[in-house]
Write a structure and sequence with these properties.
Two copies of one chain form a homodimer. Chain A is α/β, with parallel strands linked by helices and about 350 residues long. Chain A has twelve helices and 13 strands. Chain A has a seven-stranded mixed β-sheet, with helices on both faces. A two-stranded antiparallel sheet of chain A has the order 7-8.
């Protein structure tokens, strides 16, 4: 792809730019023209990109401490307070510069400030580019679980600058890779090839972004198809909760995808061959149940899962690599507790 | 209207029921069927309606202290915490029972909990029926001003039971009346007849609700026409802010409508005859600038007004009773500071 920039409009009215050298690209400026601009960036990126970007756009700069522990209602309240202190109006553009924590948190703040101000996302990690920044979900974590408070709010534009991935750590690369493979498992088998690429090719990154965008476009409010994106996350989120978010999201999702693939296999939907292929896809990941793990804690965390209905835990299941089971347009189903227990047995025997 | 119930669908997908004896009407139950239900009510209504309603619907009941001082991010956080403690899922229906404070606050909470749970509004005051409950605006107040944090979120249904108005205080009646007259001034002159009715007739209440609903339908996100609903509120909100919300909303809006009518007249848009007619409409209202009033404080509060653009204060103006000036589809305009000062001179000379 090199210098070529792919642009497209994704649901409902977000312009998406994917390419290289986007931070200094002329296409960025029109979004900031005539609007006061505030850049909110991960503090770790201040010297690397944020200071230069805010100077270039004549914008105010606010930084937030790195890490998932920043993604709280308290940090959101602090950011809102800073925007009031800066006397920002409804015509202020917020730019989020950072990983998924930053895009989720700043998106949340943008949706609440004066009932919504214009928003632009510049994801700086693979995870944020292919997942967090796409689809309008914003949110913060609570002691009861991840993303349990949030909104659906769409940015004016997303600038996915692939050059920013050069400085990524291996852990960060795996976080993004886990989401690409997950999308491969439920929707587009070709994406699973990303597991064998290092770094992941521009072509597959673009394909992952477009794949997620097309799912969101068909079901923005997650009443149906969009639920498939939660594959691996029912158990993955529970693992993060019991570990108090000290486990990397990609590692939790990798473990969750394996466990929920096992569940799909155990329930008779997924063949042994496909299950074996899936275990191979995650072989690069550190696969270890986190400190603080307990089955009871996980089951408790899952009772607050957002897919839950009428008090029962529901799972997304797959019947082959690249295809989630539709279950009459629900794209998830209630699973007997005994099957969940068997899945935990399997997971503990392998990864404890 | 008596026993007859008017039902209609308002933007984007809210069912509206206006009539009598609605709290026990069979049309309420289908919304709660198959969903866990939590009623969140103004504490003052617990014995009057809330306990019976939640029993009838087999719902949990949470009460919130009466008054605008409850409409804060802190109360919203407490309500979210209670919903987590009750282990509510995304399939929990929230029912707001109360005045505008309750419908705004519970709407805000419903929009945030797990990124949005189904919501039903039962406004119990004239103000909430004709204004707060209609149009999807949710919000909480901050020390910087009213409703500065909020979302746009639409309920599944609104039940406006006119029987609930029988127990309303005179102050509450005037709060609603001020909004009906305001809507009359900017949109539908016939509504101004409400000023001469006590109590306001069912027919005019329905007409006010439908008037506001039709404006919201044409411009849900307040990019254009919907701004006319802010008439009287630029100054009205500032008065509430300097009085720390101890002045009744209706009194602040009455003063604001008078001041902004004076401004429209002073700028040459509104005739002396129409201005005289407008002063007559508000003669039942206690028209006194609140304790804590200062011109400087008001001007400062107005700089955070949500209509503000590029740092300038903008006003909705009228050119006759029943018509707001379109100003090239902006429905508001920047006004010279000298004209604002003159308006404050006039207001202070009459109402200080």
């Amino acid at each position: 792809m090199e210098k070529k920039i792919e642009t497209t409009v994704i649901a409902p009215s977000t312009q998406l730019f994917v390419g290289r050298s986007l931070l200094t690209d002329e296409r960025l400026r029109p979004f900031c023209a005539a609007l006061r601009t505030v850049v909110i960036a991960d503090a770790a990126l201040e010297q690397l990109y944020a200071a230069a970007l805010s100077k270039q756009l004549q914008a105010d700069l606010i930084t937030i401490p790195s890490g998932e522990t920043s993604k709280t209602p308290q940090t959101a309240a602090l950011l809102l307070e800073k925007l009031f202190q800066l006397e920002c109006g409804r015509d202020t553009l917020l730019i989020a510069l950072g990983g998924g924590v930053t895009t989720d948190l700043v998106g949340f703040v943008a949706s609440l400030y004066m009932r919504g101000v214009p928003l632009l996302l510049i994801p700086t990690t693979l995870l944020a580019m292919v997942d967090a920044a796409i689809g309008g979900k914003t949110g913060v974590d609570t002691p009861y679980g991840k993303n349990l408070i949030g909104t659906l709010y769409y940015p004016k534009a997303i600038f996915a600058d692939l050059d920013l991935l050069n400085s990524l750590s291996e852990r960060e690369r795996l976080n993004g890779l886990a989401e690409i493979i997950k999308l491969g498992l439920v929707y587009d088998a070709a994406l699973c090839n990303a597991a064998h690429q290092s770094p992941v090719s521009d072509v597959l990154i673009l394909q992952a972004i477009q794949g997620k965008a097309s799912i969101v476009e068909r079901d923005p409010k997650e009443h149906s198809l969009r639920r498939i994106l939660n594959f691996g996350h029912t158990i993955g989120h529970a693992l993060e909760a019991v570990a108090h978010y000290t486990i990397a999201h990609g590692e939790a999702v990798a473990l969750g995808c394996l466990a929920e693939s096992y569940l799909s296999h155990h329930l008779g939907y997924l063949s042994s061959a496909d299950f074996a292929q899936i275990t191979e896809l995650f072989r690069l990941f550190p696969l270890k149940l986190p400190k603080g793990y307990s089955r009871k804690g996980c089951l408790q965390a899952m009772t607050l899962d957002k897919k839950r209905a009428a008090g029962e835990i529901r799972f997304v299941l797959i019947d082959k690599v690249g295809h989630a089971l539709p279950f009459d347009h629900n794209y998830c189903t209630v699973v007997p507790l005994s099957a969940v227990e068997t899945t935990f047995d399997w997971m503990e025997s392998r990864f404890l």
